[in-house]
Specification:
By secondary structure, this protein is α/β, with parallel strands linked by helices. The chain contains twelve helices and 18 strands. It has two domains: 246 residues, Alanine racemase (TIM Barrel, Alpha-Beta Barrel); 127 residues, Beta Barrel (Lyase, Ornithine Decarboxylase, Chain A, domain 1), CATH 2.40.37.10. The strands form two sheets. Strands 1, 11, 12, 13, 14, 15, 16, 17 and 18 form a nine-stranded mixed beta sheet that branches. It has an eight-stranded parallel beta barrel with strand order 2-3-4-5-6-8-9-10, surrounded by five helices. Strand 4, helix 5 and strand 5 form a beta-alpha-beta unit. It starts with a helix and ends in a 15-residue tail after the last helix. This is Diaminopimelate decarboxylase. It catalyses: meso-2,6-diaminopimelate + H(+) = L-lysine + CO2.
Length: 408
């Protein structure tokens, strides 16, 4: 998107504001498709948790995407966006059996990641197809909070528990139609990913009626100029060759599945915020904006980097600023960052704001959440209204203490 377009949107819809570029989402989807174009059967399931706006889901449905969901609410969003149940996979962690059964009744693909639930579900619903999420014990991902395939992870069934897993499947007579893994986000070492894939292939050989193998995702995107990223083209060549060989050995053409979230939407997102105050202290120049970690928590939660530009003064002389929010706690988006000279009223643009940004926003400090806009075919479309104070108190039940009897 062009700077002038972002500035116009900030005026039209006010700040703070999330903007998503549909063209970037489309190009990322097609890039992944092309990288695996030689796979006979490919399925891309968008990870809803990254950005769950229904209009974004409908955009991805147009491209042919399925959905990866982790809650019944995400499943319901997918159904509202007109996805057929069979194009939705549900991979919960630590949820109740009641929720899993409720989702299964909708016709959605169930993916189970622990032995206890597998045994309970198999005993009650042996004819319902189930995918199994394994933990390959392979460390991948850029941060411990987003590395989910290591030995201490709460996710997946350990490959060392395979004898127990197979005994449950045999005793219940349940139908296993898929095997799944997810090692973590921000994967750079393709060889590590391929090593984990070999574990998935070995596991799959224990099951005779598989329809698909799900390799998760976690592809890293660039966060700044000249940043490194996952080479999905190289991965496509190597994994396609190995997957084709596996299908031949297995004796059946399986579907290769991925569940990208950040890869598809991260770079499409822009977070626009106005500078309320420029504050000089004895050692720092703070640029205080009309937002905080209630709107964008990733830098504070796990140290994520978001490139920040002053789009009101792009050609200005660069100076050092610490960009901070208005929350009554330390909420520093960037410390001592080189940014074109900032004055009060300028609009700052945070890049890579499409994934895990609005979806993790809150009403902390009783602040309202911002609006969302989709830039589609040369026009900004409002896809979520800005919250109001009425939205914050809508579900509160206010007691009338004056009518409460007082003990004498």
């Amino acid at each position: 998107m062009e700077t002038n377009q972002l500035l116009e949107l900030s005026e039209q819809f006010e700040s703070p504001l999330y903007v998503y570029d549909a063209e970037k989402i489309q190009s990322q989807y097609h890039r992944l498709e092309k990288a695996f174009s030689k796979v006979n059967s490919l399925r891309i399931n968008y990870a809803v948790k990254a950005l769950s706006n229904i209009s974004i889901l409908k955009l991805l449905k147009q491209l042919g995407s399925g959905l990866d969901t982790v809650s019944i609410q995400e499943v319901q969003l997918g159904l509202m966006a007109d996805y057929p149940p069979e194009k939705i996979i549900y991979t919960p962690n630590g949820v109740s059996m009641e929720e899993i059964e409720e989702v299964a009744a909708l016709g959605v693909q169930i993916n189970i990641d622990n032995l206890s639930i597998l045994e309970q579900f198999g005993a009650k619903h042996p004819t319902t197809p189930v995918c199994i999420r394994i933990n390959p014990h392979v460390m991948a991902g850029g941060n411990s909070n987003i590395s989910v395939g290591h030995i201490d992870s709460k996710f997946g069934i350990s490959i060392h528990q395979m004898p127990h897993l197979l005994r449950i499947v045999e005793n219940t007579g349940m139908h296993i139609n898929g095997i799944h893994m997810h090692t973590g986000s921000d994967i750079l070492d393709i060889e590590v990913f391929l090593y984990a894939a070999e574990i998935l292939f070995d596991t799959a050989m224990h099951f005779k009626e598989l329809e698909f193998l799900d390799f998760g995702s976690g592809f890293k995107v660039p966060y700044k100029k000249d940043d490194i990223e996952t080479d999905v083209e190289e991965l496509g060549k190597k994994l396609t060759k190995r997957f084709t060989k596996f299908c031949s050995e297995y004796g059946s053409e399986l579907t290769l599945c991925f569940e990208p979230g950040k890869f598809l939407v991260s770079q499409s997102g822009y977070f626009l915020s106005k500078v309320n105050v420029v504050k000089q202290t004895t050692s720092t120049v703070f640029a205080g904006i009309d937002s905080g970690f209630n709107h964008l928590i990733r830098p504070m939660l796990y140290g994520s980097y978001h490139h920040i530009e002053n789009i009101s003064n792009q050609k200005g002389k660069e100076r050092f600023y610490s960009v901070v929010g208005y929350i009554c706690e330390t909420d520093t988006f960037a410390g001592n960052r080189r940014i074109a000279e900032i004055t009060e009223g300028d609009i700052l643009c945070f890049r890579n704001a499409g994934a895990y940004c609005f979806s993790m926003a809150s009403n902390y400090n009783s602040r309202t959440r911002p609006a969302e806009v989709l830039w589609y075919e040369g026009k900004g479309h409002l896809i979520r209204e800005r919250e109001t104070f009425d939205d914050i108190i809508r579900k509160q039940v206010i007691m009338d203490f004056n009518s409460t009897p007082v003990a004498v």
